[in-house]
């Protein structure tokens, strides 16, 4: 089909996603409309986002004396409230509804999560976990719908900074739950390390490390200089308190990817794609060096971790062998059904292995295919850099790259956590920019006519 014929049918050929003329898209809100978004609504979104980090889970729902989960009416109420707020925002805003319906990669992941209940070894757990994932994922899309473009990034990073401040306050006021204790019912090896408002020191470390990276890159675009410095210090204190190697990696690679993407997006258009290729080759070389053990000194001496990633690399093959022999390898054990607990006494701590255990040989390639598609669309957005909105256009690529890397030693894919929200924000920004490109092409075509 020629570009002229495609435009006649309302299809964007060079955009990020295809749109037809029947699309219900309307122009995004103006700056005045964004600022007119009720402060109360922003506050409610912020509270929901904090609990979706997730925060206060162990503090409210775990009996620290027995190690038993006792549940929490507060957490249950917050989950229900977040779900109601998300659906009300989608139903009440045409722009938000249009954005959500166009974000089919996220909707497809939600569909697969619910569909796995058909063969899940624990259907009730799968449905419950899928519902929680749906709520968390849609929350990110709603934030982009109500606060388009860079406004959504600013909002999320500000709430992340508040999360670091809350963690420090929790350490000061409630150290028995905010700091790992020798009396804890599990993982006493971490005694003395901070977990803040999170359930584990690794959660606080990843969260604070990513907050540091985003604050270092966006700087005063997020906060005025004195406030920015205060929250940056809070984030650094949280990272040091957690002693998390994952957090340290996040604090380094997040601004590295952002600065590299910004550099590429600001190059003349003919040079962007070749530079992306060079950048990808560089990352591949670093990965190969890690695989060959060349970076062992960095891992052991600087990060203080063993070269086998604290034993994880040794027991992943054991878990997979047990899975192959379990009879679940074709369809998997079901999303959120905790099949990994049946495969090994060790925690998987690998997002890729986790998804394979949950979805098996049949669905996992589709899940990972969606992950690759999101990465590809993020790259396309950096190369095209439409509208000159560089700060927002580079966010999906950089954040998704960080998520893909950190899931090698963490299990954050499709869970109730910050990564899920950021993934939805990234996809929402990609689709939103595609909608803008579609609208610009339609306007240009009409002018030609």
Automatic annotation (TrEMBL):
Keywords noted in UniProt? Membrane, Transmembrane, Transmembrane helix
Looking at the UniProt entry, the stretches that span the membrane are: 43-62, 74-92, 99-119, 131-148, 155-174, 203-218, 225-242, 248-265, 277-299, 359-379, 391-409
> Origin, by domain of life?
Bacteria
Full protein name: O-antigen ligase family protein
């Amino acid at each position: 089909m020629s570009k002229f014929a495609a435009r006649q049918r309302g299809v964007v050929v060079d955009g990020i996603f295809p749109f037809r003329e029947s699309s219900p898209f309307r122009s995004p809100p103006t700056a005045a409309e964004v600022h007119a978004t009720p402060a109360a609504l922003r506050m409610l979104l912020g509270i929901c986002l904090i609990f979706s980090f997730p925060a206060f889970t162990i503090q409210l729902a775990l009996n620290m004396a027995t190690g038993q989960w006792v549940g929490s009416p507060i957490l249950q109420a917050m989950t229900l409230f977040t779900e109601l707020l998300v659906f009300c925002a989608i139903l009440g805003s045409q722009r938000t509804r249009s954005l959500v319906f166009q974000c089919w990669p996220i909707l497809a992941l939600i569909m697969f999560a619910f569909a796995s209940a058909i063969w899940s070894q624990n259907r009730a757990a799968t449905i419950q976990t899928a519902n929680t994932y749906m709520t968390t994922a849609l929350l990110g899309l709603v934030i982009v719908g109500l606060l388009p473009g860079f406004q959504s990034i600013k909002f999320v990073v500000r709430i992340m900074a508040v999360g670091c401040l809350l963690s420090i306050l929790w350490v000061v006021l409630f150290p028995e739950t905010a700091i790992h204790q020798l009396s804890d019912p599990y993982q006493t090896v971490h005694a003395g390390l901070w977990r803040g408002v999170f359930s584990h020191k690794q959660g606080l470390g990843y969260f604070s490390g990513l907050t540091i990276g985003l604050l270092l890159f966006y700087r005063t675009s997020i906060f005025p200089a004195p406030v920015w410095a205060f929250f940056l210090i809070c984030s650094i204190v949280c990272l040091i308190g957690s002693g998390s190697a994952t957090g340290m990696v996040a604090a380094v690679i997040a601004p590295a990817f952002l600065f590299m993407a910004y550099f590429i997006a600001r190059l003349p258009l003919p040079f962007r794609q070749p530079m992306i290729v060079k950048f990808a080759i560089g990352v591949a070389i670093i990965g190969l060096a890690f695989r060959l053990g060349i970076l062992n000194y960095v891992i052991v001496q600087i990060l203080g971790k063993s070269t086998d990633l604290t034993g994880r690399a040794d027991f992943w093959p054991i878990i997979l062998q047990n899975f192959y022999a379990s009879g679940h390898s074709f369809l998997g054990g079901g999303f959120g059904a905790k099949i990994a607990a049946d495969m090994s006494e060790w925690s998987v701590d690998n997002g890729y292995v986790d998804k394979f255990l949950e979805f098996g040989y049949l669905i996992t390639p589709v899940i990972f295919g969606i992950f690759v598609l999101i990465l590809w669309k993020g790259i396309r957005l950096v190369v095209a850099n439409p509208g000159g909105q560089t700060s927002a256009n580079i966010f999906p690529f950089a954040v998704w790259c960080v998520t893909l890397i950190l899931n090698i030693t963490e299990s954050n894919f499709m869970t109730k956590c910050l990564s899920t929200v950021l993934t939805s924000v990234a996809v929402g920004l990609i689709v939103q920019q595609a909608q803008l490109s579609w609208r610009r092409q339609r306007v240009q075509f009409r002018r030609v006519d």
